[in-house]
Amino acid sequence: MELVSVNVGLPRLAQFQGETVRTGIFKQAVSGPVPLTRTNLQGDQQADRAAHGGVDKAVYAYPLEHYDYWQLELQQKLPDMGSFGENFTVCGMLENEICIGDTFEVGTAVVQVSQPRTPCLKLAVRLQRAELPREFLRSLRSGFYLRVLQEGHVASGDRFTLTNRDPVLITVRQMIHVYHFDRKNREAARNALENRSLAAAWRDELEKRVRTLPD
After folding, report:
1. What is the C-alpha to C-alpha distance for residues 18 and 22, in angstroms, rounded to an integer?
2. At what angle do helices 66-74 and 132-139 cross, to 10 degrees?
3. What does the domain layout of the chain look like in residue ranges?
4. I want to staple 92 with a disulfide (CB 3.0 to 4.6 A). Which of 1, 13, 20, 68 is the partner?
5. pLDDT-derived band at 54, boundaries 50, 70, 90
6. pLDDT for 104-132, tens place per residue?
7. CB–CB of 114/197 below 8 Å?
8. What's the whole-model pTM score?
9. CATH placement of domain 2-167
10. Consecutive H or E run containing 106
11. Burial 36-60 (b: 16+ CB within 10 A, else e)
């Protein structure tokens, strides 16, 4: 499991379907070591702090393996690493293998998988394709967010070392399915909540389902 590229970017204005959108999704690869704090990489910012960033979404990771799939699906050559707005372009860390709560040493930092990504309009802006957020979600190739348990420095070429897992294993892909595609399944929501490492916002939504959905 490898950190292929570290990508950062500051908010900027972009044109999409005749409108001007402020977004931080445009990332560029940087050489390391790069300081990683509890909420961000040095040189990186989010445009919409209400929906992006925070301790449960300090870093967004996306598998390099998906780039070939999207180039075929979109029929276009993708820009360099960071095309999906990811901070970490990773290799060997696919959604059907990585679990919520997986904890890794990388560089001198320690990070933990907190939730899958829910794509928004900014992804459409990045690749100029209005339907991409829906396609991205349906593909189950979401990537995942990381919380930072120990601040440190990271650099391209660093290896991820798995050091701990949540006692209740649920993969990133399984969590996407429960959260987005099995929304009326109270038992599935209850089972997902047994994993104690899930991001607070996702826990809140699943707890609401447990309270309100019929048995």
Report:
1. 13
2. 140
3. 2-167
4. 1
5. confident
6. 999 999 999 999 999 988 998 998 889 99
7. yes
8. 0.94
9. 2.40.33.20
10. strand 103-106
11. beebbbeebebbeeeebbbebbbbb
